[in-house]
């Protein structure tokens, strides 16, 4: 374990989720989930920008206006972090994202209309900054230290990118820990309150969130947590279930109404996504729901019944895929299903009844544990672990594992594993390599991560060049490569020639993708601070627009479907009211980038004309 960090302020725990994020802190020995400025204990992982990039919204406010501003509202950024643009999973997602993602030096960047492009680290940094702001507002003091969670199956590049995002948000990320491990801490401490003594138990954490899926098997003994094995899919979650529903309705619309592809209309796609997510959630408590969207696409009104059975049918292969991961992880842990005492469910997607039913059947009728809140457990555990890093609180012992094997490519393109998967971390292992040519004076070594025998099928992490080695016949000079993983799962590589008394020589990293330069970090931090000053203004502007839009909609409904027009004396007056309603809707569409003051002025203007009639008709 790492030595205790000398931090005397509160350390927060952040669950940086694909769909929602959550922040917690330990005060007076008790972990608390911190509600945001809307009173909600989780915050949507949404970021929105104005047309001129002058205003930014994060969280609830950004999600509310997503349907009106689809090309400048960013979500699911976690599915892009640390990945290459040409990654097949990234390419698959791009079809259903309403915003534009472009290729910049092999990395996916969000291209915002009429504004600067944003890297996926910057988007994640904005969400982390919002969590920091939420905690500071609650605690009444500045916060810098944080423990941030990531999916267990995140690779080294993705973990480093998450740390970079924390730095941009002006956070000192003390540790990166795996989400299911954090959830296990929450479960373990909760179970301690229910048990009279410490008992050793083996648990399985099934963590299915909005965009990632993890399984971890742990041994819990009081406040000691040892990860035995981990598995998962860093690109599987509730968002994929939403996508299946979207694909179903897109096919249905094309078959019943029109031949054109609705996926080309980003605004319609955003509205459909919102309704599909709502339907998915409602089907956890209802056997069927109505999916209704007025004038969705080319005048088509979508009005269809969606049953829970149909939802299960559309996603059954994905459900089964998660159970295959559970089987594989149990095998890695060398445990049978009967040896698992508790199955702990984490992540909002675990509320899906069919998934719970399949898990229960898999574990011979054992009911999944309901002792932790699936939306809050990860942040709770991260806060508890963060508190142990300070001088303020006693510690929790955590031994995690590396999710994927790490190794070196040999001369034949084979993966030479140095650190096997599920090795407890922190760890440090070495392997010796000899030269392949006579009189060789440098050695180039490529480092990979993965389980495939050929490096072309694994994840390339970096190229290491050791210079000035002793020239000698082939195979005589020996070089030792050492791979070291710290508590955050971040990889460090050193290389030295095996000569008695020789010191380690410098290692040049020529293609590592995770780190940002100091200038890039400084620029992003500066931009984040500048944007933060404008957040309150932007929020007030969006609220004013929403209020105006709601008033126009309610007034139109009252006039056209009720007795509102009957209060207008003559035919000419009625025509004028109808024209003014159309003009108001047109004005709103044409002034999406207006200021709060302009929206409020327009609202007062309309109220002056419409309210007297509506009040008479007793409609407001």
UniProtKB/TrEMBL annotation:
Entry superkingdom: Eukaryota
InterPro entries tied to this protein: ATPase_NBD, BIP_NBD, Heat_shock_70_CS, HSP70_C_sf, HSP70_peptide-bd_sf, Hsp_70_fam
Keyword Amino-acid biosynthesis: no
An annotated Gene Ontology molecular function: ATP binding
Keywords per UniProt: ATP-binding, Coiled coil, Endoplasmic reticulum, Nucleotide-binding
Coiled coil: 262-289
Cell inner membrane recorded as keyword: no
Pfam families assigned: HSP70 (PF00012)
Similarity annotation: Belongs to the heat shock protein 70 family.
Protein name in the entry: Uncharacterized protein
Source organism per UniProt: Linum tenue
């Amino acid at each position: 374990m790492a030595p205790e960090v000398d931090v005397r302020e509160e350390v927060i725990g952040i669950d940086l989720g694909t769909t929602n994020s959550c922040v917690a802190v330990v005060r007076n020995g008790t972990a608390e989930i911190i509600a945001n400025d809307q009173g909600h204990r989780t915050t949507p992982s949404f970021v929105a920008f104005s047309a001129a990039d002058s205003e930014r919204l994060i969280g609830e406010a950004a999600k509310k206006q997503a349907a009106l501003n689809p090309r400048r509202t960013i979500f699911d950024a976690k599915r892009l972090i640390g990945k290459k643009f040409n990654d097949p999973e990234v390419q698959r997602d791009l079809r259903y994202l309403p915003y534009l993602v472009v290729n910049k030096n092999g990395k996916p960047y969000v291209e915002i209309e009429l504004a600067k492009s944003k890297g996926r680290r910057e988007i994640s940094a904005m969400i982390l900054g919002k969590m920091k702001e939420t905690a500071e507002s609650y605690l009444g003091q500045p916060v810098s230290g944080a423990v941030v969670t990531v999916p267990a199956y995140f690779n080294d590049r993705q973990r480093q990118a998450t740390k970079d995002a924390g730095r941009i948000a002006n956070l000192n990320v003390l540790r990166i820990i795996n989400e299911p491990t954090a959830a296990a801490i929450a479960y373990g401490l909760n179970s301690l309150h229910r048990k009279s003594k410490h008992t050793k138990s083996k648990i399985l954490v099934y963590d299915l969130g909005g965009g990632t899926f993890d399984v971890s098997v742990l041994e819990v003994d009081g406040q000691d947590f040892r990860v035995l094995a981990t598995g998962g899919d860093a690109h599987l979650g509730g968002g994929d279930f939403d996508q299946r529903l979207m694909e179903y309705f897109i096919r249905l619309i094309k078959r019943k109404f029109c031949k054109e592809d609705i996926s080309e209309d980003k605004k319609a796609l955003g509205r459909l996504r919102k309704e599909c997510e709502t339907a998915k959630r409602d089907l956890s408590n209802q056997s069927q729901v109505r999916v209704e969207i007025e004038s969705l696409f080319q005048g088509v009104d979508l009005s269809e019944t969606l049953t829970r059975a149909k939802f299960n049918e559309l996603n059954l292969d994905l459900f089964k895929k998660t159970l295959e991961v559970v089987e594989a992880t149990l095998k890695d842990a060398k445990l049978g299903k009967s040896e698992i005492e508790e199955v702990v469910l984490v992540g909002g997607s675990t509320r899906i009844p069919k998934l719970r039913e399949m898990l229960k059947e898999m574990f011979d009728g054992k009911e999944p544990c309901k002792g932790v809140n699936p939306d809050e457990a990860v942040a709770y555990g991260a806060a508890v672990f963060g508190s142990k890093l300070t001088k303020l609180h006693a510690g929790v012992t955590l031994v995690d594992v590396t999710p994927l094997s790490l190794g070196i490519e040999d001369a034949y393109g084979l993966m030479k594993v140095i650190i096997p998967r599920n090795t407890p971390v922190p760890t440090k292992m070495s392997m010796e390599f000899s030269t392949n040519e006579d009189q060789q004076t440098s050695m180039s070594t490529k480092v990979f991560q993965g389980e495939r025998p050929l490096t072309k099928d694994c994840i390339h992490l970096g190229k290491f060049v050791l210079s000035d080695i002793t020239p000698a016949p082939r195979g005589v000079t020996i070089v030792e490569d050492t791979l070291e993983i710290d508590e955050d799962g971040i990889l460090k590589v050193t290389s030295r020639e095996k000569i008695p008394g020789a010191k380690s020589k410098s290692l040049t990293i020529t293609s590592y993708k995770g780190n940002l330069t100091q200038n890039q970090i400084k620029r992003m931090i500066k931009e984040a601070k500048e944007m933060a000053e404008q957040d309150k203004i932007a929020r007030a502007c969006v609220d004013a627009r929403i209020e105006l839009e709601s008033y126009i909609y309610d007034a139109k409904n009252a006039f056209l479907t009720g007795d509102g027009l009957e209060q207008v004396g003559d035919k000419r007056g009625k025509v004028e009211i109808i024209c003014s309603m159309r003009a108001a809707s047109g004005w709103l569409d044409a002034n999406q980038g207006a200021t709060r003051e302009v929206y409020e002025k327009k609202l007062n203007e309309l109220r002056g004309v419409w309210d007297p009639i509506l009040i008479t008709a007793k409609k407001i």
